[in-house]
Amino acid sequence: MHSTEFNKMIDGRLYDANDSYLSELRLKSRGTCFEINKLSPDESSKKKKLLKTLFGRLGENFEILSPFYCDYGINIVAGNNLYINFNCTILDCNIVSIGDNVFFGPNVQIYTAFHPLNAEERIKGPELALPVTIGDKVWLGGGVIVCQNVNIGNNTTIGAGSVVTRDIPANVFAAGNPCRVIKKLSDSGMD
Question: What's the whole-model pTM score?
Fold first, then answer.
């Protein structure tokens, strides 16, 4: 049974992250991440079982290199053929939807969580979170940061080091800080 604060978090409203239920969920997730990250490379079957329990949904044929970190895990839903390189962090305080055939370079960070801009509100402690959606056949280059409330369209490539603060359409190469469309790609992505 979800707490009221969990529901507020998923609904994009101010919520108390110190709620006992949310704290318990984060502790469980961090424990699972710790177990995953300490496994040796030859323990891949054990790692895959742990990852399946961590994620809300994880499709077939995935590889997630350690270390991997997330807040809750249960708010991450991913399709088939997912590849996540070393040192990925996903702050999944809201839903992170990842399509099929998605590749993450090393050091990718996805942030659904954020704080009020007004300093007086921020120091009171409540947080906010909005979802992130990553379409099918997306490649996030090394060091990419994806911020809250962003949708990345199918067949899109985000260049290394980019900070994605707004929606990026399908079939484009986008890069920069803030990330912007550099060029349109054919529907096949073969340019």
Answer: 0.94
Task: Tell me whether residue 165 is in a domain.
Answer: yes
Q: Which of 26, 48, 115, 180 is catalytic?
A: 115
Q: Which DSSP category does 88 fall into?
A: E
Give CA–CA dist 188/137, Å, rounded.
10
Phi-psi region of 9 (alpha: psi -120 to 50; beta: other; left: phi over 0): alpha
CATH of the domain at 146: 2.160.10.10
Q: Is 2 a catalytic residue?
A: no
**Res 21: pLDDT:** 96
* Cα(77)–Cα(97) distance, integer angstroms: 5
- List pLDDT tens digits, range 103-118: 999 999 999 999 999 9
